[in-house]
Write a structure and sequence with these properties.
Belongs to the SEC6 family. With 739 residues, the protein is mostly helical. The protein has helices at 3-9, 20-40, 50-141, 143-155, 159-179, 191-207, 209-215, 217-231, 244-261, 272-294, 304-325, 331-344, 371-404, 422-436, 442-476, 484-501, 516-545, 551-555, 558-571, 581-601, 611-635, 645-655, 662-672, 678-688, 693-704.
Length: 739
C-alpha cells in the first residue's frame, strides 16, 4: 500500500481543537529541556562541546521519529485488515439471509402439503382401528357374558377364578384401548363395579378372618392371595390403585375390634367387672387362635400375631377411653378397672402369659390408661369411697347413739368391761379400704390412707358432738337416760379401743407422725368424756358441799361420810372401764372432790370463834384428808397421785397457835402449791377468825417475797382452779387482788 493510499485510510485529525494534556506535556518537556540545557551549558568551557550535544540530540530525535512511524504504520495495517474482514463478513451474512429465505419458502410448501395429507392420515388411523376391532370383535362380543360369569364367581366366593376372569377382561380392555388410542368402549363400563364388588368380597372375607380360619380356611387363603396378587398388578390405563392389601389389613383390624369391642358389647352400669373378666379369658384365646389358625393362612410379612395383639390393645384402649368419657363409674367399678388395667392385663393370665410368643408383646405400646386417666380414676375412687365410708361411719354412730338410751346397762365382755362392736367396726371399715388398695398402686393406697385418717378424725369429732348432745338432752331432761354414766364410761372404753388399735392404720411405708391428728382427736375425746363424767359426779356432790364448812361439820363427820358414800357409789361403775382410763378417772374424780372441798372452804361460810373451833377445824381437815385417801385407795387409786394431802397443809395453817408466825406457814404453803393466791390465803385467814390487819398484811407479804417457786414434779395445779368470793371492803388492801 503506497503512502497515498495509507493517507486515505488514515483518519483525519480534527483541527482547531486543543488537548490540555498535550499542552501540559509540551510545557513539561520544554521546562525539562531548559533545565537540562542550563545545567549543561552553565560553564563556559562546556560550550565547546555544543556541536557534540547537538548531533547526539539529532540522532536521538531521528530514532524516536522512526519508532513512532513504525508503530503508527503497524496500527494502520491492523485497521486495514479489520476493515477487510468486516466486508467479508457482511457478504457472508447477505448470503445466509438469502439461504434462509429459500428454506422458509420450502417449509411453507411442506406444511401445505402435510395439511393436504391430514385427511389421508386420519383415514389410515381409522383403517387400523377398524382392522383391530375386526380382529377383537369375537372377544368383545363375549365381554358381557364374561362380566356376568365373573359376578357369579364372586357371589359364589370363588375369588381366585373371579380374579383370573377379571384380569382377562382388564387385559382385553387395555389391549383395546391401546389399539384405539385410549378410546373407551361402552362394553367395558361394567369392569369398574365388577372390580369393586370383588374387592368388597375380599375385604369382607378378611374381616371375618377369625371365623373363616376355623370354618373355611381355604376361603381366607383365597382372599389373601387375591389381595397379594393384585398388589403387584400394573396397568397402562389411568386408574387409581385399588390397594386391596391395605383394605384387607384394615378389614382384619375392624372385624377383630367389632368382635370384642363393638358398641353392643360395651358394658352397662354395674357390668364392668363381668365384661373385664370375659376379656381376660377371650383375648388370650383370640391371640392363641390367631397364631395357630390365622397366621398359616397369611403371608409372613402380615405378622398376624403382632397385628392381632396391637389391634386388640388399640381397640381395648379406645373402648376404655370412651368408657371414661361417659358417666362417672362407681367405686367398685373404678377399683376393678384400675386393678385390671394395671395388673391383670399385663400379668401372666393375659398378655404376659408364657404361652404367647414375643410377637404378642404389647409392653412397648401406649398403656391402656394414661397418667391422667389413672389420676382421674384414683380421685373418683377416693371420693366415692370417702362418701361411702362417711355414710357407714355415720350409720354406726347413729346405732351407737340409739344404744345409749336403752333401759339396760351397756353390754360387757367376758372380763366385765363395757364393750361395743363400734370401735372394731370403725377400724375394720378403714383398714379394709386401705388394705385392698395395695392391689392397685402405692399412690392409691396413700390417697385412701389419708382419706381414712381424715374420716376417722371427722368421726371422732362427730362422736364428741353426739356425746355433747346426749349429755345436754339428759341434763335438760329432754331425754330420760336410765344409765347415763355407764354409757359415758362405755364410750371411754370405745376411745381406749380406738387408741390401742389405731396403729393398724399406719403401714410400714407411712412416715412417723402421720397419726398425730387422729391421736390429738382421741385425746380430745377422752378429755371430753372425762369432763362429762366428772360433771355428773359434781352434780351429785354439789348439794352435799353446800353445807360445808359449818358448825355441824366441825362436830360431826356425817357430811363427809355422805360425800364419800355418794362418791364410792358413783365410782363403782369405774370397774367396767379398762386401764389406764380407770386410773385417769379415779385421779380426776379424787381431784374433783378435793377441788370442791377447797371451793367450799373458800366461800367464807364459817369463821372460827376461838382456839377450840380452830382446833376442831384442823382436826376435821386431817380426818377428812385421811377419809378421802382411804376411800380412793380402796377404789384402786395410787396414793402418790392423790390431791387430798393439800388438806393437811391447810390444817397446819389453821392449827397454828401464834398468828405472828402465819407468814412462815403461808410461805411453806406457797412452796408446796405455787398457784395459791392472796385471795385463797385471805379466805383461809378469814376461816381462822383471829388474824388482825397487820398480821394479815404480814402473811400476805410472804407470798410476794422471793421468786415464784416452780411446782413440784408430778403435782398439778389446784388453787388456780378454785374460785374465791369477792373480798369484803374491810379486807381490801392496796396489794390485794381488788386493789
Amino acid at each position: 500500500m503506497d503512502s497515498a493510499a495509507r493517507d486515505k485510510t488514515q483518519p483525519a485529525l480534527p483541527t482547531g481543537l486543543e488537548w490540555p494534556e498535550q499542552e501540559r506535556a509540551e510545557q513539561l518537556a520544554r521546562g525539562a529541556a531548559l533545565k537540562w540545557a542550563s545545567g549543561i551549558f552553565y560553564r563556559p568551557e562546556q560550550l565547546a562541546r555544543l556541536g557534540q550535544y547537538r548531533s547526539r540530540e539529532v540522532q536521538r530525535t531521528c530514532s524516536l521519529e522512526a519508532r513512532i512511524k513504525s508503530v503508527v504504520q503497524s496500527y494502520l495495517e491492523g485497521v486495514k485488515t479489520g476493515v477487510w474482514q468486516l466486508a467479508q463478513a457482511l457478504e457472508a451474512v447477505r448470503g445466509t439471509r438469502e439461504a434462509l429465505d429459500q428454506a422458509r419458502g420450502l417449509l411453507q410448501d411442506m406444511a401445505e402439503a402435510a395439511q393436504n395429507l391430514e385427511p389421508l392420515r386420519e383415514q389410515v388411523v381409522q383403517h387400523k382401528q377398524l382392522q383391530a376391532l375386526s380382529q377383537l370383535l369375537p372377544r368383545l362380543r363375549a365381554v358381557p357374558a364374561a362380566v356376568t360369569h365373573t359376578q357369579t364367581l364372586i357371589d359364589a366366593q370363588r375369588f381366585l377364578e373371579a380374579y383370573v376372569s377379571l384380569r382377562e377382561l382388564e387385559q382385553l380392555q387395555e389391549e383395546t384401548c391401546a389399539h384405539l388410542g385410549g378410546l373407551e368402549l361402552p362394553v367395558f363400563e361394567g369392569l369398574g363395579p365388577l372390580a369393586e364388588a370383588l374387592g368388597q368380597a375380599v375385604e369382607a372375607a378378611a374381616g371375618a378372618a377369625g371365623q373363616l380360619a376355623r370354618e373355611d380356611p381355604a376361603l381366607l387363603v383365597a382372599a389373601v392371595r387375591v389381595a397379594e396378587v393384585d398388589a403387584g398388578r400394573t396397568t397402562s390405563l389411568e386408574q387409581a390403585p385399588r390397594d386391596w392389601r391395605q383394605r384387607c389389613l384394615h378389614a382384619l383390624q375392624q372385624g377383630l375390634e367389632q368382635v370384642h369391642f363393638g358398641t353392643s358389647l360395651q358394658p352397662g352400669p354395674g357390668a364392668l367387672a363381668e365384661w373385664l373378666e370375659a376379656l381376660r379369658v377371650a383375648l388370650p384365646a383370640e391371640l392363641a387362635m390367631a397364631e395357630a389358625l390365622v397366621a398359616p393362612c397369611c403371608p409372613p410379612h402380615y405378622k398376624v400375631v403382632q397385628l392381632w395383639a396391637h389391634t386388640l390393645h388399640g381397640g381395648l384402649r379406645r373402648c376404655l377411653q370412651q368408657l371414661l368419657e361417659g358417666p362417672e363409674l362407681e367405686a367398685a367399678d373404678t377399683f376393678t378397672l384400675l386393678h385390671w388395667a394395671l395388673h391383670v392385663y399385663q400379668g401372666p393370665e393375659m398378655m404376659g402369659s408364657l404361652e404367647l410368643g414375643p410377637e404378642a408383646d404389647v409392653s412397648d405400646l401406649e398403656p391402656l390408661l394414661t397418667l391422667e386417666n389413672i389420676e382421674q380414676l384414683e380421685a373418683t375412687f377416693v371420693a366415692k369411697v370417702q362418701a361411702n365410708v362417711a355414710q357407714w361411719l355415720q350409720k354406726a354412730l347413729d346405732g351407737e347413739v340409739v344404744e345409749w338410751g336403752r333401759e339396760q346397762e351397756p353390754d360387757t365382755d367376758l372380763s366385765g368391761f363395757y364393750h361395743s362392736p363400734l370401735p372394731a367396726i370403725v377400724l375394720q371399715i378403714l383398714e379394709e379400704n386401705i388394705r385392698v388398695t395395695r392391689m392397685v398402686s402405692v399412690s392409691l393406697q396413700r390417697r385412701v390412707h389419708g382419706m381414712a385418717l381424715s374420716e376417722l378424725s371427722a368421726f371422732l369429732r362427730s362422736f364428741s358432738d353426739a356425746l355433747i348432745r346426749f349429755s345436754r338432752d339428759h341434763l335438760r331432761g329432754d331425754a330420760v337416760v336410765p344409765h347415763y354414766v355407764p354409757y359415758l364410761l362405755a364410750t371411754l372404753n370405745h376411745q381406749l379401743a380406738l387408741s390401742s388399735s389405731v396403729s393398724v392404720l399406719q403401714p410400714e411405708w407411712v412416715v412417723p407422725g402421720v397419726l398425730a391428728p387422729v391421736e390429738a382427736e382421741l385425746d380430745k375425746l377422752q378429755k371430753r368424756i372425762c369432763r362429762l363424767v366428772l360433771e355428773a359426779l359434781l352434780a351429785e356432790l354439789q348439794p352435799l358441799f353446800a353445807a360445808l364448812p359449818s358448825r355441824r361439820w366441825l362436830s360431826s363427820p356425817e357430811l363427809l361420810d355422805d360425800v364419800c358414800e355418794r362418791t364410792a357409789r358413783f365410782c363403782q361403775n369405774f370397774r367396767h372401764v379398762r386401764n389406764p382410763a380407770v386410773q385417769l378417772l379415779l385421779a380426776e374424780a379424787e381431784r374433783t372432790v378435793v377441788l370442791q372441798y377447797l371451793h367450799a372452804l373458800m366461800q367464807g361460810r364459817l369463821v372460827c370463834r376461838g382456839v377450840d373451833e380452830r382446833t376442831q377445824a384442823a382436826e376435821r381437815l386431817q380426818h377428812d384428808a385421811a377419809q378421802l385417801q382411804e376411800l380412793f385407795l380402796g377404789l384402786g387409786l395410787e396414793e402418790s397421785v392423790q390431791c387430798a394431802p393439800v388438806l393437811l397443809a391447810l390444817r397446819e395453817l389453821l392449827n397454828l397457835h401464834d398468828p405472828t408466825l402465819l407468814g412462815l406457814e403461808v410461805a411453806g404453803l406457797r412452796q408446796q402449791f405455787p398457784d395459791v393466791s392472796e385471795d385463797h390465803v385471805s379466805a383461809l385467814l378469814d376461816l381462822r377468825g383471829d388474824v388482825s390487819r397487820e398480821q394479815r398484811l404480814a402473811a400476805l407479804s410472804s407470798l410476794r417475797a422471793g421468786p415464784q417457786p416452780s411446782p413440784p414434779a408430778g403435782r398439778r395445779a389446784l388453787f388456780s382452779l378454785v374460785p374465791t368470793p369477792a373480798p369484803s371492803l374491810a379486807s381490801c388492801f392496796p396489794s390485794g387482788s381488788c386493789a
